[in-house]
Amino acid sequence: MSLRTPLGRVLGLGTAKDGTSHWWGQRVSAVALLFLGLWFAWSLAVTPDFSHAVVVAEIGRPINNILLLLLSVTLAYHSYLGMQVVVEDYVHAPGIKVITLMSSRFAHIALAVAAVFAILKIGLNA
Fold first, then answer.
1. Residues 112, 73 contacting (CB under 8 angstroms)
2. CATH number at residue 94
3. DSSP for residue 48
4. Residue of 34, 65, 75, 81 with fewest CB within 10 Å of its CB?
């Protein structure tokens, strides 16, 4: 007894063998974002003043700098994975799907690079 559909048996279509790593990537990044988000909320709660000098000094502390880098990169990765699922599930035209997936990847990479650059610039100059 097979669980494959008759059309799937005729066409020889099966799993792409890629869903498990994508699923794990989303779950692991979600757990990382839970802890990093709690740290970020706590960091904002204990900051005495939100003036430019105080914020730059807080970001300039090594542990805050590293955690903020991890938060930014993990957030970009998790967001990309989520957008990929939405596009693959709801965009049905092949050409538009490829363009949207490529645009999403480039946008997420550009935003992650900009965030890393800004955080490192503040961290190294503070």
1. yes
2. 1.20.1300.10
3. S
4. 34
Dig out the tokens for 36 from the structure: 């990093």
Q: pLDDT by residue (tens digit) across 18-42? A: 678 889 999 999 999 999 999 999 9
Is 1 a domain residue? no
Segment 63-91 shows an average pLDDT of 97
Establish if 3 belongs to a structural domain: no
**Residue 6 lies inside a defined structural domain of this protein:** no
Residue 5 falls inside a structural domain = no
Q: In this model, does residue 102 exceed pLDDT 70?
A: yes
Domain of residue 42, residue span: 15-125
Q: Nearest CA to 78 among 41, 123, 35?
A: 35
CA dihedral in degrees (47, 52, 55, 61; nearest 10)?
-130
* Residue ranges of E strands in 13-100: none
Mean pLDDT value across residues 65-83: 97
The whole-model pTM stands at: 0.82
Tell me how many domains the chain contains: 1
